[in-house]
């Protein structure tokens, strides 16, 4: 699955909206499948799989957006981490005494069917290091300013930003999320588009070196901001630090 696909993020935000009572299961799954097409977990339709997990005590979904060298949101085992890093994304279903990891992949059957097939594996039930939405927003702002300064003096072709890509990035989270989470998620999604375009600018080796570290830090901050935003629906119940 391409790391920029919104399928895991969509499952997490709409799944959490369902788990917290803001939408029904049908509405949540409809939104997920509107993005990626019909979804199955193994051979089980996503709707039925989620319903079974809910009966088993599932109370949250977490987003993982790992990259090589940065297993953000993952807790193991290694077999699951490898799948998730290759896909650039995963979902963790949190149950009382266990967790189930879901990794998406394209499900193509012939020329007319396009959907998503999720691989489910049992994962470690430990909690990953996820920043709060306030911490993530602060880090994202700092990384964005650093990257802007680093690239300000770099000349090179600047391809236009596709309106469709920005419009898609501006889509808010599901109902029930706090306003701050919506704001951070939209900004992070827009910056994801900009990072992708920055890779296509055709710069020289020297120019790339100038901004490479700043862009790497911005990518890290963007992924953390997206993860924090998608878990922020549960933050009111967290103890203050």
Secondary structure layout plus pairing:
Layout lengths: L6 H13 L5 H12 L2 E3 L2 E2 H10 L4 E5 L13 H10 L2 E5 L4 E11 L3 E11 L9 H20 L10 H7 L9 H20 L6 H27 L10
Parallel strand pairs: 1-6
Antiparallel strand pairs: 1-2, 3-4, 4-5, 5-6
Account of the protein in words:
With 241 residues, this protein is α+β, with helices and mostly antiparallel strands. It has eight helices and six strands. The protein has a six-stranded mixed sheet, sandwiched between helices. Helix 1 (7-19) packs antiparallel against helix 2 (25-36), helix 1 (7-19) packs parallel to helix 8 and helix 5 (133-152) runs parallel beside helix 7 (179-198). It is globular and about 50 Å long. 37% of the residues are buried.
In short:
By secondary structure, the protein is α+β, with helices and mostly antiparallel strands. 49% of the residues lie in helices and 15% in strands.
What are its keywords?
8 helices, 241 residues, alpha+beta, 49% helix
Low-pLDDT segments, ≥5 res: 237-241
Estimated structural class? alpha+beta
Q: What general form does the structure show?
A: globular
* Largest sheet: number of strands, sense, barrel closure: 6 strands, mixed
Strands, total number: 6
Continuous helix count: 8
The ordered string of helix (H) and strand (E) elements is HHEEHEHEEEHHHH
Radius of gyration: 18 Å
Please state roughly what percent of the residues sit in beta strands, choosing from under 5%, 5-15%, 15-25%, 25-35%, 35-45% or over 45%: 15-25%
Mean pLDDT: 85
């Amino acid at each position: 699955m391409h790391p920029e696909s919104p399928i895991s993020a969509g499952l997490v935000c709409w799944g959490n909206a369902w788990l917290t009572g803001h939408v029904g299961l049908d509405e949540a799954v409809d939104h997920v499948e509107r993005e990626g097409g019909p979804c199955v977990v193994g051979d089980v339709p996503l709707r039925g799989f989620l319903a079974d997990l809910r009966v088993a005590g599932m109370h949250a979904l977490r987003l993982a957006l790992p990259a090589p060298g940065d297993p953000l949101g993952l807790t193991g085992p290694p077999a699951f981490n490898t799948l998730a890093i290759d896909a650039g994304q995963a979902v963790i279903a949190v149950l009382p005494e266990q967790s189930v990891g879901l990794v998406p992949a394209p499900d193509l059957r012939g020329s007319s069917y396009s959907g998503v097939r999720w691989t489910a594996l049992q994962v470690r039930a430990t909690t990953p290091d996820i920043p709060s939405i306030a911490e993530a927003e602060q880090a994202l702002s700092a990384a964005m300013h650093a990257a802007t300064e680093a690239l300000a003096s770099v000349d090179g072709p600047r391809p236009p930003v596709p309106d469709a890509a920005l419009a898609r990035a501006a889509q808010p989270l599901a109902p029930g999320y706090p306003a701050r989470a919506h704001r951070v998620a939209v900004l992070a999604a827009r910056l994801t588009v900009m990072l992708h375009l920055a890779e296509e600018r055709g710069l020289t080796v020297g120019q790339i070196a100038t901004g490479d570290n700043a862009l790497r830090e911005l990518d890290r901050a963007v992924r953390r901001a997206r993860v924090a935003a998608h878990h922020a629906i549960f933050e009111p119940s967290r103890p203050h630090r």
